[in-house]
């Protein structure tokens, strides 16, 4: 399954990735958190949208 890898130290909790994801994969808790990994389409939109560069990769595993 694919999922974004979020660097919690870099995340500024802006919520942009949560709003950008078309699949409801992410939720803003203390920092952006993957809550529905099975729905990730590995589209990369969240990574592209993150203003802090906190989404380091879309991992396929
Ligand atoms: S890669 Fe796409 S589907 Fe997966 S969490 Fe990011 S925006 Fe959502
Ligand atoms: S877009 Fe980046 S900085 Fe903003 S909540 Fe998501 S991971 Fe954190």
Automatic annotation (TrEMBL):
Query: What superkingdom heads the lineage?
Result: Bacteria
InterPro entries per the record?
4Fe4S_Fe-S-bd, 4Fe4S_Fe_S_CS, Fe-S_Ferredoxin
What organism is recorded for this protein? Collinsella acetigenes
- One Pfam family from the record: Fer4_7
- Domain 4Fe-4S ferredoxin-type span(s) in chain numbering: 2-31, 34-61
UniProt GO molecular function: 4 iron, 4 sulfur cluster binding; metal ion binding
- Please identify the protein, giving its name as recorded: 4Fe-4S binding protein
Entry keyword Iron: yes
Q: Which UniProt keywords apply?
A: 4Fe-4S, Iron, Iron-sulfur, Metal-binding
PANTHER family from the UniProt entry? ADENYLYLSULFATE REDUCTASE, BETA SUBUNIT, FERREDOXIN III
């Amino acid at each position: 399954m694919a999922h974004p890898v979020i660097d919690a130290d870099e995340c500024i909790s802006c919520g942009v990735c949560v709003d950008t994801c078309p699949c409801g994969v992410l939720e803003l808790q203390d920092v952006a958190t993957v809550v529905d990994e099975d729905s990730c389409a590995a589209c990369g939109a969240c990574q592209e949208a993150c203003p802090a560069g906190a989404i380091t990769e879309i991992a396929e595993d």
